[in-house]
Amino acid sequence: MTIRVLVADDQAMVREGFSVLLNAMPGIEVVGEAVDGREAVAQVDVLGPDVVLMDIRMPELNGIEATREIVAADSEAKVLVLTTFDLDEYVYQALRAGASGFLLKDASASRLADGVRVVAAGEALLAPSVTRRLITEFSRISVAPRTPVLARVGDLTERETEVLVLIAQGLSNAEIAAQLVVAESTIKTHVSRILVKLGLRDRTQAAVFAYEARLVTPG
């Protein structure tokens, strides 16, 4: 099936560039563009894209708030955050808001297309530098996990908790299956149940949840 993409960026050249690159890739179609976060939210409602390429710094409504509104509306669209800097101060906030992944704007055409496909498939997409930033952020926070978070952890089986920890460590389904010596299809089932039980959209949110619950010790 063709992956439908909405490109949200306040710079016309960036929008047009990404649109040209993605439309040239097999199985991907850019169905719309948005000049700011407010228009992005509206376009998601009208066009129903599978993936939104979301710039963080935009007028009217920034990418973080736009992502939060899209997620709150229970949209099926996955948000792939784009930014110029890998140390953007808002990256962590965007992931907390529900973004499914992160890419730098200078990513190659093939990397961009792969990112869209990964996010559309419900996988997490985090550049190594962003993963380190995420870990650093949780290391800095000294407060204990909130009671509701701990209560939700209690809904998981021992094996599901184990799988969740490995997701947070950045392992793919195949890598988790190899480590636990089970079939990859079994891991896919565990991941689906984890997301349902915790009320999460994808693996990125699962990773964030695992750190918030202190199931993973940064370091």
Provide a concise account of the structure shown.
The chain is of the alpha/beta class and 219 residues long. Helix content is 53%, strand content 13%. It has two domains: 3-135, Response regulator (Rossmann fold, 3-Layer(aba) Sandwich), CATH 3.40.50.2300; 143-212, Arc Repressor Mutant, subunit A (Orthogonal Bundle), CATH 1.10.10.10.
Description:
The chain has 219 residues and is α/β, with parallel strands linked by helices. It folds into 2 domains: 3-135, Rossmann fold, CATH 3.40.50; 143-212, Arc Repressor Mutant, subunit A (Orthogonal Bundle), CATH 1.10.10. It is 53% helix and 13% strand. The chain has 11 helices and 5 strands. It has helices at 12-23, 37-47, 63-72, 91-97, 109-120, 128-140, 147-153, 158-168, 173-180, 184-198, 203-212; strands at residues 3-8, 28-34, 51-55, 78-83, 101-104. The protein has a 5-stranded parallel β-sheet, sandwiched between helices. Helix 2 runs parallel beside helix 3, helix 3 runs parallel beside helix 4 (91-97) and helix 8 packs across helix 11. The longest helix is centred in the last third of the chain and has 15 residues, at 184-198. It is globular, with a radius of gyration of 17 Å. The N and C termini lie far apart (40 Å).
